[in-house]
Amino acid sequence: MSEHVLRRPIRGLTDWEGAHLFLELVRRSSFRATADHLGISVNTLRARIDDFEKSLKVKLVTRHVDGVRVTAEGERILELVAEMEKTSFELVRACEPAQKTMSGEVRLSITEGLGAVWVGNRLVDFQRRYPELMVDVHATMQSSDVLRLETDLAVQLTRPTAKDLKVVKLGRMHFHFFAAQSYIDRHGLPKSMADFGKHRLVIQTDSDENARRVYDKYFPGLPPEKFIAQRSNVSSVHYWAVARGAGVGMLPTYIYAYDTPLVPFDMPIRYQTDIWMTYHESAGQIPRVRALADWLVEAFSPRLYPWFRDEYIPPSELRKKYRGPSLGNPLDIAAGEPAPRTPTERKKPKR
Prior knowledge:
By secondary structure, this protein is α/β, with parallel strands linked by helices. It contains 14 helices and eleven strands. The protein has helices at 3-6, 16-28, 31-38, 42-56, 72-94, 112-119, 123-129, 181-187, 208-218, 224-227, 235-243, 287-299, 315-321, 330-334, and strands spanning 61-64, 67-70, 104-111, 133-140, 153-156, 165-180, 201-204, 228-232, 248-252, 262-264, 271-280. The strands form two sheets. Strands 3, 4, 5, 6, 7, 8, 9, 10 and 11 form a nine-stranded mixed sheet that branches. It has a two-stranded antiparallel sheet with strand order 1-2. Residues 1-11 and 333-351 have low confidence and may be disordered.
């Protein structure tokens, strides 16, 4: 073998942006959706994908009426590009300064309901502990991608399955039927499942498919046109509809631990969902992320807050089991009233 062959450099990838565009295209299965997400024109995206395919000398995707499909050759390239992206995120995390003082920004993604009613008004406790930290809260109905650095920490209602994630169960949320006293004064309360057809229902759902599945399970045979008074996709709108007497609706049982005007009533329908906190293992080594993670564990402590225990506790018994200070009224909190004190701020009661 000649010396010239031995010294010939190995050809590496130079079109890093093309690799990223290919990855985004596969994730969204559409040139139009990908272009809109990235803020570029469809023609520009198509040209860049064509250039990337030419640089690799392989066809990566084929175009169809319903979107794009990855070729067999593209599947292998896709796997490698995804690993490249993961490594690039690891590089960013490695550059995070391991500061001894708590300063900078930490990002928290949380479901809209828990963010607005439970966590949002308690974050003042965390920020009093670490006044130099800025907390960026993103309340959303969709789970954020911790692996792709969309957030540092995520609190969600579906358990993540991706590798390299630290997953912590914070507690369990139980749901029960409630109605406003104003609604009860006008319509009374249903005493049986058959009685439900005479009432108005308020529901929350994140998709038409989920709404239909839940409705068919619990209310088969009841025409939704005459039964459902309001449907919304966010918890705050759902809560206000029930609180203002639009109809009966399911809410988390912890809502009754507040000084709320809502009235719970016994029905054989209830369900529960676990609350999960997740973050990348390497992000957990960053002091400010670790501090917020520890605070969230405390904020959802089933020992302090019985409504987050695994076992179901009827709403009427929650106030007896809770030993902390008044949580206030979520209506007042939404209107800007001061938040209640959190466990770490409590003063010992006088004896």
